[in-house]
Amino acid sequence: MKILLLGYGKMGKNIEAIALDRGHEVVGKINEENIDDLNNFNGDNVDVAIEFSRPEAAFENCLYCADNNIPVVSGTTGWLDRKEEIETKVQNNNGAFFYASNYSVGVNIFFKVNSFLARLMNKHPEYNVKLDEIHHTEKLDAPSGTAITLAEGVLDEVDRKESWVNSDTEKVEELEIESFREPGVPGTHSVYYSSSIDEIEIKHTAHSRQGFALGAVLVAEWILDKKGVLSMDNFMDF
Ligand SMILES: NC(=O)C1=CN([C@@H]2O[C@H](COP(=O)(O)OP(=O)(O)OC[C@H]3O[C@@H](n4cnc5c(N)ncnc54)[C@H](OP(=O)(O)O)[C@@H]3O)[C@@H](O)[C@H]2O)C=CC1
Ligand SMILES: O=C(O)C1=N[C@H](C(=O)O)C[C@H](O)C1
C-alpha cells in the first residue's frame, strides 16, 4: 500500500521502518519545512495517510486528507477540540478517518481494565482516584492523550468525579492527573485508588515506541476497505 506520512519525526520514522518491513511503500514524508509538497498528494496516488505531527498541525493535515479523498490514521494528541469538525467532514465526503490517543494493543486492553476497575469503584467512595503519566521531555502537550482517555474512562463510571484537572486538587469531584517529564521515557500511565487502608494501582509501561508505530501501520492496513469514523474499539473488535 502507498503510505503518506504526515509528520516525519520520532513516530513518523518508527512507522516508516515498520511499514517498509511489511512491504509497503512510503510515497511522501511531510514536515513543516516541506508542507507545500502536500498539494501533490490525493486519493489517486495515496492509499492512506498516517498522521503523527504536532497539536497545531493535525487539524489542517486531517482536513486536507478529508478534502482530497485520502483515508487518514491520526495519532497526534492535543488537538481534539477540532476533531469533531473533521469527523463531520469525513462523513459528508464518505471518507475514512481513524483516531486513537494510543495505538498500542496493550494500552487499549489497559483502557478496558481501567473502565472495569472504575465501575467496581463507583460503589466505594472511601477510595480516591488519581492518575499520573510520565513522558520524555520533548512532549509538547500535557496531560497526554492517553491520560485523557483514561480519565474519561473513570469519569464515565465513577459518579463522584465530575471533571479532570491537570494540577493538584483537594476537591473530591475533581480527578487529578499529574504529568511528569523525564528524558527518554516513551510513555507510562498509572491509575491509583487510595483509601486509608490500602491502595490499588494499575499501570502500563511502554518500553519503546514500537507498539504505537506497529499499531498505526496495522490500522492503516485494516482501514483500506472501510468508510466512516473509526476507532480502536472497531479495530480490536472488543
Ligand atoms: N496515538 C499514539 O499512539 C501516539 C501519539 N503520539 C503523538 O504523535 C505526535 C507526534 O509525536 P512525535 O513523532 O514523538 O513528535 P516529533 O516532534 O518527533 O515529530 C513531529 C513531527 O511533525 C512535524 N510537523 C510539524 N508541523 C507539521 C505540519 N504542519 N505537517 C506535518 N508535519 C509537521 C515536525 O516537523 P518539524 O521538525 O519540521 O517541525 C516533526 O517532524 C504527538 O502529538 C504525540 O503526542 C506519539 C506517540 C504515540
Ligand atoms: O508524545 C508521545 O510520545 C506519546 N503520546 C501519546 C499520548 O499523548 O498519550 C501516546 C504515548 O503515550 C506517547
Automatic annotation (TrEMBL):
One of its GO terms (biological process) is diaminopimelate biosynthetic process. NCBIfam families: dapB. GO terms for molecular function: 4-hydroxy-tetrahydrodipicolinate reductase. Its EC number is 1.17.1.8. It catalyses: (S)-2,3,4,5-tetrahydrodipicolinate + NAD(+) + H2O = (2S,4S)-4-hydroxy-2,3,4,5-tetrahydrodipicolinate + NADH + H(+); (S)-2,3,4,5-tetrahydrodipicolinate + NADP(+) + H2O = (2S,4S)-4-hydroxy-2,3,4,5-tetrahydrodipicolinate + NADPH + H(+). Residues 106-235 form the Dihydrodipicolinate reductase C-terminal domain. Keywords: Amino-acid biosynthesis, Diaminopimelate biosynthesis, Lysine biosynthesis, NAD, NADP, Oxidoreductase. The keyword NADP applies. Coiled coil: none annotated. Residues 1-103 form the Dihydrodipicolinate reductase N-terminal domain. Belongs to the DapB family. Pathway: Amino-acid biosynthesis; L-lysine biosynthesis via DAP pathway; (S)-tetrahydrodipicolinate from L-aspartate: step 4/4. It comes from the Bacteria. GO terms for cellular component: cytosol. This is 4-hydroxy-tetrahydrodipicolinate reductase. Pfam families: DapB_C (PF05173), DapB_N (PF01113).
